[in-house]
């Protein structure tokens, strides 16, 4: 693709604004898609977990179990708080 150089300052500003707006819309669309995907995964996990008696099974609760030992290593000594800290660590790492 051959790119044309802007002929004046106004054309350069308009081109930059257009490119910036396109980038912002792309980032917004990806963010909406990612949040939707997380909600879909949580819905599936909750439905499948309900079959086995774990209706509150979500991606965040799985992250809490996985990262609970890391929370202990960081210094969270209470068991319930370590689970919550593990959830926060997992959420931050995943997105």
Describe this structure in words.
Keywords: Membrane, Transmembrane, Transmembrane helix. InterPro entries: C_nuclsd_transpt, CNT_C_dom. The protein contains 3 helices and no strands. With 95 residues, it is mostly helical. The protein has one domain. Helix 2 packs across helix 3. The longest helix is centred in the N-terminal third of the chain and has 43 residues.
* Terminal-residue CA separation: 34 Å
**Biggest sheet layout:** none
> What is the strand tally?
0
Radius of gyration: 22 Å
- The mean pLDDT is 88
Helix content: over 70%
Q: How many H/I helices?
A: 3
The geometry reads as: elongated
Please indicate the count of domains: 1
Helix and strand element order: HHH
- Low-pLDDT runs: none
- Report the β-strand fraction as a percent range: under 5%
Alpha-beta classification: mainly alpha
InterPro entries: C_nuclsd_transpt (IPR008276), CNT_C_dom (IPR011657)
Domain Concentrative nucleoside transporter C-terminal: 3-92
Protein name: Nucleoside transporter
GO molecular function, one term: nucleoside transmembrane transporter activity
What descriptors fit this protein?
mainly alpha, 3 helices, elongated, 95 residues
Can I get a quick summary?
The chain has 95 residues and is an all-alpha fold.
């Amino acid at each position: 693709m051959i790119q044309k150089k802007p002929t004046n300052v106004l054309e350069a500003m308009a081109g930059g604004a257009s490119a910036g707006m396109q980038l912002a819309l792309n980032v917004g669309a990806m963010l909406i898609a990612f949040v939707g995907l997380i909600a879909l995964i949580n819905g599936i996990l909750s439905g499948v977990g309900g079959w086995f008696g774990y209706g509150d099974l979500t991606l965040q609760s799985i992250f809490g179990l996985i990262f609970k030992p890391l929370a202990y290593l960081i210094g969270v000594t209470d068991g319930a708080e370590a689970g919550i800290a593990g959830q926060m660590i997992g959420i931050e790492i995943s997105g």
